[in-house]
Amino acid sequence: MAKFNKYVQIGPATPAVNGAEAAMIKVCEKYPNVVAVLEDMGMPGLEWFKKHAPERIVECGIAEANGAVIAGALAAEGFMPFLHSFSFAVIERAYNQIRQSILVDRFNVKITARDGVWGDLGISHDIVEGLSCTRILPNLVILNPADVVEAEKAYIAMADYVGPVYFRMEQSAPAPLKIFTDDYPFEIGKAYQIKDGKDATIIATGYLVTEAIKALDILEKEGLDVGILNMCTVKPLDEEAIIRVAEQTRAIVTAENGSIVGGMGDGVAAVLGEYAPAALVRVGVEDEFSQSARLSADVDELKDLFGLGAKDIAIAVKEAIAKREQFKLVRK
Amino acid sequence: MAHSPEVIAELEDKANLLRRNIIRIFENSKQGHSGGTMSAVDIVAALYFHHLKLDKKNCDWPERDRVVLSKAHAAEAIYAVLPEIGYVSKDMLDKYYAYKSQFQGHADRWCTPGIDYSGGSLGQGLSFAAGMAKAEKMHTAINPPPLRVTAANMPKLVLKYNPAYRVFCIVGDGELGEGQNWEAAMFAAKYKLDNLICIVDYNKFQLDGPVEMIMPLEPLADKWKAFGWGVYEINGHSMKEILDTLELVNNMYGDGKPKCIIAHTVKGHGIPVWESVHLHYSRLEGTTIAVKEGREIYG
Lengths: 332, 299
Prior knowledge:
CATH architecture of the largest domain in chain A: 3-Layer(aba) Sandwich
Strand order of the largest sheet of chain A: 3-2-4-5-7-6-12
Oligomer: heterodimer
CATH class of chain B: Alpha Beta
Structural class of chain A: alpha/beta
Largest sheet of chain A: 7 strands, mixed
Shape of chain A: globular
Order of helices and strands of chain B: HEHHEHHEHEEEHHEHEHEH
Largest sheet of chain B: 5 strands, parallel
CATH topology of the largest domain in chain A: Rossmann fold
Helix content of chain A: 25-40%
Number of strands of chain B: 9
CATH topology of chain B: Rossmann fold
Strand content of chain B: 5-15%
CATH class of the largest domain in chain A: Alpha Beta
Strand order of the largest sheet of chain B: 2-3-4-8-7
Helix content of chain B: 40-55%
Shape of chain B: globular
Order of helices and strands of chain A: EHEHEHEHHEHEHEEEEHEEHEHEHH
Number of domains of chain B: 1
Strand content of chain A: 15-25%
Radius of gyration of chain A: 19 Å
């Protein structure tokens, strides 16, 4: 059994969205200027609004371009709008609106979106490029929580932070393990070392942290001591933490439920290339779109199709270690 | 409601002052969005020198009327007015387009005092204006300021109360091709944003040619009416019509309808060389001729 660091206590699988739901109620009670800007796709905590503050609901309907700019304007006037839908709608449909009418002026808008490849809804709704297309936008913070505890803490941190944030929710993926203890200190921009390891480090984000933890069982049986760095803040990346683990192990695997083109792994690659050369293998969706799979029985099939499971991560770790030897990279 | 000849004459003078400032801007920058700037000058003069509720000492006064310049390429028209109010220094007129200037290529909230919206990407301003108008209604509903009449505590027979602020949105005709305008139009009607006034600078030309050739807008008034707006058509270069209509619209507050003033204007208005070519963007020789003409006409 792997030895984890403080604040990690592995528990049963629990939907991360539960954490967002719980956090939204706390956020609404703490900040009376929070408003729900809807795009006919609901929102975490919406029942609270309906019951306690219906006047704080602004329903824009299926018109995401307008919705994004309405949110920007409400923020300009002192409100803290939360905007929610699938990432293809709330972000990609309104990409320039978010750029022009939210990010240019750093308006305090919180965008929560369902993103990632697992799911039954098919190519239109199971989005591979959600992280890639947002990472390149200036002034935007991106959070991608790994479990229910981190989801709640990151959600509250998002509200405490003044400025635009994209909070990514992989709702169609299987529920992640409960990973963190209730006293886990979350901070935007700080990666958390879930487990130390001298042979390699998996830098994982979101649901793939669960798969990385499961990969440890495979790797330990083969005598490998592998660390996991949880990268909830995808932007700005915690460069110090990346450099630290790169120098320690010189063998890095990145793991994300999304495209490897422009995703978190690309961000890590840039840090490694500029500051701390290390062998790198990126686990993620290759340069392709998703497709439907049923949420229960077929989940593992889709995982295998995209190579996003624990055994794929374990293979990637061994590849990274082999590359390190090939490149003759020396660990600190 | 009619405005006196003296007030009209004074504001026509102010519009000419703006034209002089715009000529100064072009004299230094040698280029800019001439056509859509000149067509909006009379509207801008009427708003800023007469109609808007502003605090000359505080451009961020929370109860100021908002102006969203959706056609933010016509920034020169607003840049001409800002030094006259005192929000920026007059020498900024010589620094349009310059590095680190407050007068950026398109009107920007993030760097220019008195600008309420960072525009340039067309078709979004009306949504932003609608959001600001909705915010005014929500502030009233959520946190009624004391000593202020609100919808909730209003005496039964009084039909009108003054909003904390109104939002004026200046949109171009060409940008009405952006579908988002009509999303915003539906939103404004749904939320009964009678504190929102959209002014269409209908100068009939866009970059590639006449609007009616590029993407016909007519029947434009019927479109707005069908979306649930109160619609008024005016000559956008008649100071009397502009002032009277703005006041009329002001007095309609409380009817639960957003308002659209379709202002028929002339692209490049007031400078013969620009009027003759309906140019979207003026540079080099055309600008030199225009500046010379402008100096002769407006001094």
